[in-house]
Amino acid sequence: MIKFPLSTEKSIRLMEAQNKLIFVVERQMKKPEIKEELEKLLSVKIDKVNTLVDKKGNKKAYVTFSADNPAIDVATKLGLM
Description:
About 35% of the residues lie in helices and about 30% in strands. It is built from three helices and four strands; from the N terminus they run βαβαββα. It has a four-stranded antiparallel β-sheet.
């Protein structure tokens, strides 16, 4: 389950420079599951998903969108911008 998109200075910088958004997800989710759920939820094509678990135990998914779907447009749709 996707919990929420992360809106921090780093996430905004990644969105503008590398066409990425950061989402906090359930810890047991795997990369293909994250990609599939976000593609259904947002109706966009995703190129790549990288994950990490921080010190607090939260799992973050760094999602790279295809060039056809700028991350800024997706963030606007989600209400982050």
